[in-house]
Structure formats: structure tokens, C-alpha cells
Design goal:
This protein has 400 residues and is mostly helical. The chain has helices spanning 18-31, 43-50, 57-71, 88-97, 102-107, 109-117, 126-129, 131-140, 154-171, 177-186, 190-206, 209-221, 227-238, 280-288, 309-317, 320-331, 337-364, 366-395, and strands at residues 6-10, 37-41, 78-82, 146-149, 249-252. Helix 8 crosses helix 9 (154-171), helix 9 packs parallel to helix 13 and helix 17 (337-364) packs across helix 18 (366-395). It is elongated and about 90 Å long. The structure holds tryptophan (TRP) and iron/sulfur cluster. Residues 292-293, 296, 303, 305, 308, 310-311, 326, 330, 335, 337, 340-341 line the site of iron/sulfur cluster.
């Protein structure tokens, strides 16, 4: 009924680095050839934690979009836009907030985790609690069925599915509802399933309110029933209308294999990154001064690649021949560390060459980027307006 569609967003945190490239961006570049894709800057999401530092977000947004384009995200294949330019996201977020139980939001694991991590900031805000609901609106408004995200975001996709189910239960119906509902009925166990079916028939065929009430009690009393099954069985008990919002699935992005310059995960907060459009000289210097096997103090000391962050770079950038040369040369003290680093330097520079090339065009003419975004926003907005027409109608707040 709905075409396959990929949607993903990224908070504008500024310049992206090799970790983003080898994790998320390379995946986006691949997906854009396989599906219709929508990629957006989640600037409102950035505000949920950066509400006290305005003025950083716009610059970070433009820098990030240039990095996407530099990495090969192609605006003739994918639709690129900025969340805050599509006010319908906010409208859907608001409407869904009416039916979202607080407990569901409080239970999303990132809520407490982030609060505990970011102790320097007051995150006991309305907006921060609503972070996953805003994300749900981002996804549901495009009826996107595939959302590429990292492991940490999976609870948000699961939450989005629950919100979609609840919405459809209250205002409509999901596809394949009938079959799924029958599967859910089986999970009640045979005795309860039989009672449930009787009550459902009595309510739907004879309109007995009492049967409906008893059905609700039955479902509320049944333990070990997932939220999804429960929502579905409530809907099935009453009958329903058409499906309005589509339950998305997560397309798990493989964790980036990119280690940082110090062997820890590459991350801005560790100060161990190489950014995507970094100056060549700076890249050379960073890799030349990278830590190596700490036991290789002198050139004549043999080393162990297993203890060396440079070796991890070779895993990503070097072919078998070079890797054999490293292993042999390192363990026999046949090569020096600077020598060993040279192929890595060459490979990183070579990887960035086309990125630098593409970025140059956009840096010289920022209007190009504005136009790409304006175009993308217009396309995105058309899709959201369609969904919102259905949503308003379903909820009963359209006055046309
Ligand atoms: N929360 C996501 C992150 O931190 C960003 C995001 C916002 C997103 N809205 C989204 C991702 C919708 C996928 C779909 O990475
Ligand atoms: Fe690391 Fe290469 Fe030096 Fe061995 S030779 S310690 S792998 S940089």
C-alpha cells in the first residue's frame, strides 16, 4: 500500500569525522541507490540539549550538510532537508503528545542515561522528555518503513512503533491487522482466547457494551502480553477504521569500525578524530604523532601490532600485502613506525581527495547548498502535508 521509504536524521554537531563516515554516511551513500531516501538535519533535537547555546546550531547545520555532500550523499538521489523548516513535524508531535502516556517516555532508556551522563546540564525539561516522541513524529510523518540507525537508537524505533500502534488503535488500523490480531489472540492462551472471541462477537454483532468492558478487563488482567499485542487486541475487540500511520523498522547500521587516533572509539569528546575535510598537513601530522606499541621505545625494539592503534588503521585501509609487510616488519624491528604509518597517511589522504573536491564547490558557492536544501524541504513538505491531512481528519480537527 505504501512504497518503501528510508528516512534518517542526524543532529547538527558540527564537523563530521571518519567515524561518522565509516559508520553512518557510507551506509547512506549505499542506501540512496537502493531506495527512495530522505535524510534530514535534526536541529530541534539538537536544541533539546543545546537550548542554552543558541547560535551554534545554524553553522553546524550548514557544515554538516556540506560534509554529507562531500561524502557522496547525492541530492539527485536523496532528499535532503532541515527538520525545523517543516513545521508539520511539530504539529504531529503536538497531536501525538495528547495520547502519549508519560510512563512510556520515562521508560525510554536514553532518557535516564543521558541525564546521568550530562550532569552539567539541566535536562529535566519538557522538550528533553519528549525527544523520542519528536523522533517518532519525524519518522511517522513520512510513513517511512526503514530507518537506518545505530544500536543506541533502537529503543527510539521501538517506541515509535508503539506510538504508531496506539495511534492506529485510537484512530485507525494497521495493515495486515486481521492476521496479526489473530496471532495475538493465540497468545492469550486457549481459555482466555475463547472468552475474548466470545466477548468480541457479542460486542461487534450485538453492540453489548458490557462485553466490551469485560474484554478490557480481560486484557488488562492478562500478564506477559507485550504492549503491541495489547494495543492490537484492544483495537480488534472494537473493530476499527483505516490505517493511518505505518510502523517503521530499524535498519541497523553496523557500528563504525573506525578507531580514534589513540585506539579508543573515534569521538569528538575524546579529541582523537580526523575530520572529513581536514587540512592535508594536519592529517599527516596527526598520524605521524599517533601512539604506537608503547613497548617499541627504540627503533631496534621489535613491536606487537596487536598493541598498536596504527595497526587498526591498517585493518581498514591496507590490503593483505601491506598488512603482511607491517606484521613482518614490526615484529622483527625491520621497519620503523614512521615508515609503517606512511601507507595509512596515503590512504586517508586518498580517501578524502574526492571529498575535498566535492566540498570545494560548495564552499566556494554556499548558495548551491541553500538551493539543495530548499529543494529538499519542498519535496519533504509535500509528503508531510499529505500525512497531516489524514491525521487531522482521523483525529477530527480538520475544518475543511
Ligand atoms: N536521535 C537521532 C540520533 O541522535 C537523530 C534523529 C532524530 C533521527 N530524528 C530521527 C534518526 C529520525 C532517525 C530518524 O542519532
Ligand atoms: Fe605500530 Fe607499525 Fe610501529 Fe608496529 S611498526 S608499533 S604496527 S606503527
Amino acid at each position: 500500500m505504501y512504497a518503501e521509504r528510508v528516512l534518517s536524521g542526524m543532529r547538527p554537531t558540527g564537523r563530521l569525522h571518519l567515524g561518522h563516515y565509516h559508520g553512518v554516511l557510507a551506509n547512506w551513500v549505499k542506501l540512496q541507490h537502493e531506495y527512495p531516501c530522505l535524510f534530514f538535519v535534526a536541529d530541534w533535537h539538537a536544541l533539546t540539549t543545546a537550548y542554552d547555546e543558541p547560535g551554534t546550531i545554524a553553522q553546524n547545520t550548514w557544515d554538516m550538510v556540506v560534509d554529507w555532500l562531500a561524502a557522496g550523499v547525492d541530492p539527485s538521489q536523496a532528499t535532503l532537508f532541515i527538520q525545523s523548516r517543516i513545521p508539520e513535524h511539530a504539529e504531529l508531535h503536538l497531536l501525538m503528545s495528547m495520547m502519549t502516556p508519560l510512563g512510556w517516555l520515562e521508560r525510554v532508556p536514553t532518557y535516564k542515561d543521558q541525564q546521568e551522563k550530562m550532569t552539567h546540564k539541566d535536562l529535566t525539561t519538557y522538550g528533553f522528555l519528549g525527544y523520542p516522541l519528536l523522533q517518532a513524529a519525524d519518522i511517522l510523518i513520512y510513513r517511512a518503513d526503514k530507518v537506518p540507525v545505530g544500536e543506541d537508537q533502537v529503543p527510539h524505533i521501538e517506541f515509535t512503533r508503539e506510538i504508531a500502534r496506539r495511534f492506529n488503535h485510537l484512530y485507525g488500523r494497521e495493515p495486515g491487522f486481521e492476521n496479526k490480531a489473530r496471532e495475538s489472540v493465540k497468545k492469550l492462551g486457549s481459555k482466555r482466547a475463547k472468552l475474548y472471541e466470545e466477548l468480541r462477537t457479542r460486542y461487534q454483532e450485538r453492540g453489548e457494551q458490557e462485553a466490551l468492558d469485560q474484554g478490557h478487563v480481560l486484557l488488562n488482567e492478562t500478564q506477559n502480553l507485550s504492549l503491541g499485542d495489547k494495543e492490537r487486541l484492544f483495537g480488534y475487540l472494537e473493530g476499527g477504521g483505516k490505517m493511518i500511520l505505518v510502523e517503521p523498522g530499524a535498519l541497523l547500521t553496523e557500528a563504525s569500525r573506525m578507531p580514534g587516533l589513540d585506539g579508543q572509539k573515534m569521538s569528538k569528546s575524546y579529541g582523537n578524530t580526523i575530520t572529513l575535510r581536514e587540512d592535508e598537513e594536519s592529517i599527516r601530522k596527526k598520524i605521524r604523532t599517533m601512539q604506537t606499541d608503547p613497548r617499541r621505545v627504540r627503533r631496534t625494539d621489535p613491536g606487537d601490532p596487536g598493541q598498536c592503534p596504527v595497526w587498526e588503521f591498517h585493518q581498514i585501509y591496507s590490503n593483505d600485502e601491506v598488512k603482511a609487510w607491517v606484521r613482518q616488519g614490526c615484529t622483527s624491528a625491520g621497519i620503523g613506525c614512521l615508515e609503517c604509518k606512511q601507507p595509512v597517511i596515503d590512504a586517508v589522504l586518498q580517501e578524502q581527495e574526492p571529498m575535498r573536491e566535492r566540498a570545494r564547490m560548495y564552499e566556494e558557492d554556499p548558495q548551491l547548498v541553500r538551493n539543495i536544501i530548499a529543494d529538499g524541504c519542498e519535496k519533504a513538505r509535500k509528503l508531510t502535508q499529505e500525512t497531516m491531512r489524514d491525521v487531522r481528519q482521523a483525529i477530527g480537527v480538520d475544518y475543511s
